[in-house]
Write a structure and sequence with these properties.
Layout lengths: L25 H39 L6 E3 H6 L9 E5 L2 E6 L2 E5 L4 E7 L6 E2 L3
Antiparallel strand pairs: 1-5, 2-3, 3-4, 4-5, 5-6
The structure holds zinc ion (ZN).
Length: 130
């Protein structure tokens, strides 16, 4: 006879019956897995929130700069709360790296300036002017 008792990880009830049983019931099993899933999506929500905020900042700047050059001081982007290590993808225009948050992105011109870029939908190319 085994004396070690196993407990349901969801409700802490002592498990009876088969020794390989992991949960006391199907509803505890599904509650446990749903809770795990919702924890994962909290992380996803946090990352998506940052990406959405970054996109909003880039979009706002892109649409409000009348000049086709779309140049912005790096400090200005930072001050709006842009998080530089959160982005969706990287593309290259000749040698220059473009970092995107969805369809809006930027190219580092030097240590003080960035050029805003916008990706054309359903295309491999990037529209860097308008
Ligand atoms: Zn249970």
């Amino acid at each position: 006879m085994q004396n070690i008792k196993n407990y349901c990880p969801e409700c802490n009830e002592v498990l009876r019956g088969r020794t390989d049983k992991k949960f006391c019931s199907d509803s505890c099993r599904s509650m446990f897995h749903n809770r795990l899933k919702s924890q994962q999506s909290e992380v996803q929500k946090m990352i998506e929130g940052r990406l959405r905020k970054n996109r909003k900042i880039l979009m706002g700047l892109y649409n409000n700069i009348a000049s086709d050059l779309k140049l912005v001081p790096l400090k200005y982007v930072e001050n709006l709360g842009f998080t530089f290590n959160f982005y969706t993808h990287i593309e290259y225009d000749t040698q220059k790296q473009m970092i995107f948050c969805f369809e809006y992105g930027y190219q580092k011109i030097d240590n003080h300036k960035v050029k805003l870029v916008k990706q054309i939908p359903f295309s491999e190319g990037v529209d860097i002017i308008a």
